[in-house]
Amino acid sequence: MTSELFLVRHAQASFGSDDYDRLSALGHRQARWLGEHFRSRNLAFDQLICGRMVRHRETAEGIFHGMGQDFRGPDLDASWNEFDFEAIVRAYLDLNPDQRPAPEASAGSFSRLLRRALQAWTEDRLHAPLPERWPQFEERVRHGLTAMTAQPGDGRRVLLVSSGGAIATALSHVLQAPPSAMVQMNLQLRNSSVSHLYFNARGMHFSAFNHVPHLDHPERSGSVTYY
User: Model pTM?
Assistant: First the structure.
């Protein structure tokens, strides 16, 4: 039988604060709204997997709260943790100090810097010591995906909450796309977005990317975020 995988990027984190790895007030609402959407579709999940980051768990808690279900804790898997984007950006700026944005620069300026830094990282052009090189990160995400899909395809429905880089890397693997595709998808992924795949013993099949149906309401038009 064919099983389903719902890949959810964490809701909005506390970008610009002392602790990014926690949801903002809007992030908590995004997660709850997604759970309410799942409930309206009568969706239930046989397995919940999360990376080990606080924003992953808080997103999962909000989803289950919105679904009206008790949150009993996910299967935690560090394979789905995000790369250290701050270390990558620092290493890139060490090589390109003239590209450092001004303190008052817009979020768009940071996004463009992150794109350039990720491109350099995936091409192994960063010389400073890093927590992970691109091949190491790609391999651990691949391991997490393989371990999850290696279980029998018994028609189960899996909810997996992670971060943009890990999700984009997994999708690139399924699509057999180059690392540049990871960079593009990562920067497109919206907070609390859903990407959907089918899988069985023969492989995985891509179905949907970056959907936010729970935010597609006029009164939530300002609730679509990327950090």
Answer: 0.94
The letter for the amino acid at 223 is: S
Q: Please determine, for residue 59, whether its predicted confidence score (pLDDT) is greater than 70.
A: yes
Exposure of 106 by Cβ count < 10 A (0-12 exposed, 13-18 middle, 19+ buried)?
Answer: exposed
Three-point CA angle 93, 224, 83, nearest 5°: 35
Question: What is the tens place of the pLDDT at every residue in 113-137?
Answer: 999 999 999 999 998 899 999 999 9
CA distance 43 to 14: 29
Q: What is the mean pLDDT of the chain?
A: 93
Cα 194 to chain centroid, rounded: 9
Q: Return all residues near 148 (Cβ < 8 A) that are at least 6 apart.
A: 5, 49, 77, 158, 160
80 within 8 A of 190, measured Cβ to Cβ: no
